[in-house]
Every structure is written in structure tokens, then in C-alpha cells.
Amino acid sequence: IRVDLGNANLSGQLVSQLGVLSNLQYLELYSNNITGNIPAELGTLTNLVNLE
């Protein structure tokens, strides 16, 4: 699974619910205004290849 939200004019913090996407391989969040810490739940995504 690829989630491409690059250049989507997002702001704020990432939600921990991203951690339920167990088949997520690519999470693209570049060129946004994301703040805060990366949720610990993303550490459980064993298929994640790229976080951008």
C-alpha cells in the first residue's frame, strides 16, 4: 500500500491510527507542514519501506 500525501497542504501532527495500516509500504508526506513527533505506532509497520 502506498499513501501519497506529498504537497497536500497538510498541517498538524500525524495520527497514531496510521499504525493500523499493517500493509503500508510507502508513506509520502513531503512538502507539508507536519509538526510534532512521529507516533510510536509507526514503528510497528514492519512492511514500511519508505517514509518521506
TrEMBL record:
InterPro entries: Leu-rich_rpt (IPR001611), LRR_dom_sf (IPR032675). PANTHER family: SOMATIC EMBRYOGENESIS RECEPTOR KINASE 1 (PTHR47988). Keywords: Kinase, Receptor, Signal, Transferase. SUPFAM superfamilies: L domain-like. This is Somatic embryogenesis receptor-like kinase 3. GO terms for molecular function: kinase activity. Signal peptide: none annotated. The keyword Lipid biosynthesis does not apply.
